[in-house]
Amino acid sequence: MGMIHLRHLHEDLSLTIGELKSIVTAVEAGEMEAVEKFDGQSIFFTWDAKSGGIRASYSEGELRSGGMPGDKWLERWSGHPAEDAFVGGFKAIQRGLDSLDAETLTQVFGPDGRNFVMAEIMYPANPNMINYNGSYIAMHNLRSYDEEGKEVDAQLKGGQFGQLVSAVEAAEQQVDQEGWKMVGPQIIKLKNLSSGKIGDGYASKIDAITGMSDSSTIADYVEEKLRTEIVSDLPIPVIKQEQVIKLILGKEDAPSLRDLKAGLDKETQKKVSALATKVNSKKTIQKATKPLERVISDFAIEVLDGLASAFVEDHDKETARMQKMLQGALSQIESAQGGEELMPTVAAQMEKLGDVANVSSSLEGIVFEYPPGSKSLYKLTGAFAMLNQIVGRARRMPSPQSEALLRRYVRYVMPIMMG
What's the pLDDT score for residue 345? Predict the structure, then answer.
């Protein structure tokens, strides 16, 4: 979890269809170097050479402003449900960095503390979906920011980041006095699935969905979907439809929304806004990429099947627990006040998942760099995404509900679960 977003493959509109298929093929063959994505709380931290203290951040905005000093960080989480995780994790980072000398810390974080470590807090007393076997600070990478808060570099391994991981792990060896341990990225050995031609099958599905050449981008695919299926329904001239498409895709020569709506009747203005405001443009693009999203989700479920987390004690026991938790969430939504409105959404998530048994990995997902050396990170999360959506909704709902909801449950969800 966290506020800074790792992209799913379908979210990078600059990827070509050929690159997307190459990624699928490399992952299928187990040739992609991947690290574990954890189901914890994100924290970004740096060491300030001037004050000798740590600054931390949870959101991208906080990070760009330089993060907050320790006292402010601790004050921020006081009384919060996740206080123990964020406060305990911060103090564990303090202890870990205290084991290093100022010269090493300055080399890693820079004289102005503009290098931030992206890390994850795993705290068993405050789990999300996955139960881990201890309290960890898992360091993922090191990101450098200029004085304006713009990211200028990222180190995924080696360099200053590798120096920090090696130094902290050597200094700590085991867990510290409070039971925490700081660790570096956890490499996941992907299975070689090429004998089953899984990748070839999904590459063919991508071709069938897009109908485009390997040199075309996902943005080209989205543009064509907008042109032929989504924007074509607007009752405006074709030339104006093309302008709407440019605005949705954020092209430099796109007109403003105000200019687009000028001269249109109120009903048509509403339809244009429903597609092309800044917020709605993202939703419109998500709608266009949904077929690709589904294919990649299915692929991820197969790739992650049976893979175990580095920090889960009993993989089989944990996956069985998560399957039971999902079944319980489905039953809770069935009987919860207001659950009726959620049934179509839950059914859509179960349709993507296919079967509760597909919750078969104790990983949240994997993260990898493509192409190697580019510092562009992507994630595959498989069944976890659907588990998280359904269980998360159940946790936010009250419990009692009428028999009508049971009928809705049977109508929407049971046919999918039964196949």
Answer: 84
pLDDT tens-digit profile of 270-319?
Answer: 999 999 999 999 999 999 999 999 999 999 999 999 999 999 999 999 99
Query: 331: closest CA among 297, 356, 354?
Result: 356
12: left (phi over 0), alpha (psi -120 to 50) or beta: beta
Residue 144 — φ and ψ, nearest 5°?
Answer: -105, 140
DSSP string for residues in 43-103: EEEEEETTTTEEEEESSHHHHHTT-EEHHHHHHHTTT-TTHHHHHHHHHHHHHHHHTS-HH
Q: Is residue 136 a contact partner of residue 182, using CB atoms and an 8 Å limit?
A: yes
HSE-CB at 192 with a 13 A cutoff on CA atoms is 2
Q: Which ranges constitute the DSSP H helices of 173-309? A: 198-210, 218-225, 238-249, 257-261, 266-276, 278-304
Residue 226 gets which letter from DSSP? I
At residue 402, the pLDDT reads 42
d(CA 274, CA 247): 12
CB 133: neighbour CB atoms within 10 A?
14
Which amino acid, one-letter code, is at 228?
T
Q: Are strands 135-145 and 115-122 parallel, antiparallel or unpaired?
A: antiparallel
86-143 pLDDT per residue, tens: 999 999 999 999 989 999 999 999 999 999 999 999 999 989 999 999 999 999 999 9
Distance CA 22, CA 18 (A): 6
Return d(Cα 36, Cα 186) in angstroms, integer. 6
What pLDDT is attached to residue 376?
87
Provide Rg for the chain, Cα atoms.
24
The low-confidence residues of the chain, meaning pLDDT below 50, are 1-4, 399, 401-403, 406
Do 257 and 276 contact (CB within 8 A), yes or no?
yes
Residue-level pLDDT at 412: 58
- For residues 112 and 118, the answer to whether their CB atoms sit within 8 Å is no
How many other CB atoms sit within 10 Å of the CB of residue 333?
Answer: 25
Let me know if 173 is exposed, middle or buried by CB neighbors in 10 A (0-12, 13-18, 19+).
exposed
